[in-house]
Amino acid sequence: MIVISTSVLDIDIPLPQLPSDARVEYRLDYQSNLSLIPWECFHADHILTYHIKDSLSITQYQALIDTCERQTPAMIDIDYKLWQSGGNKPLGDRYILSLHQDVLDIGSISSLLNETEDVRFVKIAINASTWSEVVDVHSLIAKSGRRDVIFSVMGRYGKLQRILYRTFDSSAVYVYCGAPTATGQISLEEANLYHIRSIDSETMVYGILGNEGVNSSKSLSRYNEVFRRESQNAVYLPLPAQSIQEAQAMLFWLQERFQVRGLSITSPFKKELPGSYGKSTIANTFLPAAQQFYNTDVMAFTAALKILNVSVSDSVLIYGTGACAELFVLHLQANGFGNISVSGRDISHVVEFCNALGVRTLSAHNTRFDLLVNCSPLGKSPTNDISKLPTFEKLIDLAYNASITKLVQLAQEQNIPYVDGSAFWELQFVPQFTLLIQL
Fold first, then answer.
1. Measured in whole angstroms, how far is the alpha carbon of residue 177 from the centre of its chain?
2. 291: Cβ contacts below 8 Å, ≥ 6 apart
3. Which fold has domain 298-426?
4. For a tag on the chain, would you pick the N or C end, based on fewer CB atoms within 10 A?
5. Beta-carbon contacts of residue 134 (< 8 Å; ≥ 6 apart)
6. Would the pTM count as exceeding 0.85?
7. Do domains 212-295 and 298-426 have the same CATH topology?
8. In the CATH scheme, what architecture does the domain 212-295 have?
């Protein structure tokens, strides 16, 4: 079942191409004046939910629930702990008995799963702080044998868990239309893009492994659009790990359930993931079955140098000390570039980086470079100060976001040739797609 959650009491909300079992959840707690709620407009395909706030007493909450039951035929989401405190009144199949946790409490979840009250669904919503918490709760659900459980994860793992809601034995997934009503929620459009109702054990799984930023990676739409267009039983997932150990656990969990065909790798795992397989390399692409690593960033960097007509005699400033910065320095050195300097936000990291690779740190007398390569988020935020950077004649800016970065804006204003983050992403995407996908 797909539940479209909305904070707007618009009964005529447009919901195209919905399956027959879809429901709309109206979040009454977003309403500033409960006396203006149009009770007569709700029907049996609706779910009425009020997440308790400090401004509403338990008595008032119970009165609101009674009004929902008395004046509408809609399903009603009732808080498990408040239901217990109100005397465990009989509910029935119009009710969803829900437990929301910002901090995991396994005991309360077990209590809910053991509850014998006759309701339509029991719902568990957790703001998971680790991947293991997501897995542990799913294990409890699986062991309970219940088939009426709705499991929703909020926060960094929410997108992944909701896309795979059927794998997590959840009877429903909550999505939004308009604006999200919970962190980690996916939109109805995303639900259709990922074909979440069609994912099964035969689905070929791809994904992007990195920090929480992978949840907004443009790779997600590009790969999944191809799968939909080619009618492939495949999905490309966000894998937001907090450590290499968590990344390994996430990958192992997926491999137990799916054919994991290939991964894109981004910060901070471009060195750590290959290292966990005994490989001393920097990679942004991984084929698990063959345990082979590749790097299409260096292919994109080579192409960008060619586009900008950069020569080996040019002076180059690398800004940043991460995996891409290291990769680019090594590539420049291997191809005869001798005038390479490095700068970054943390001077101690810069010195350590330069000593390891045998390049210069940026000195005060270096006021101009032929090429600036930004391997950091510098310039993504309008508050970033780029005024202390040396002048440059050409720019490769790996940072990309919806709006133009400050470095690219400067390049445009001064008619400086550049390759921006979006163009660089395209340059690496094409060879990576060829490596990962064989359609």
1. 18
2. 277
3. Rossmann fold (3.40.50)
4. C
5. 126, 128, 153, 157, 161, 168
6. yes
7. yes
8. 3-Layer(aba) Sandwich (3.40)
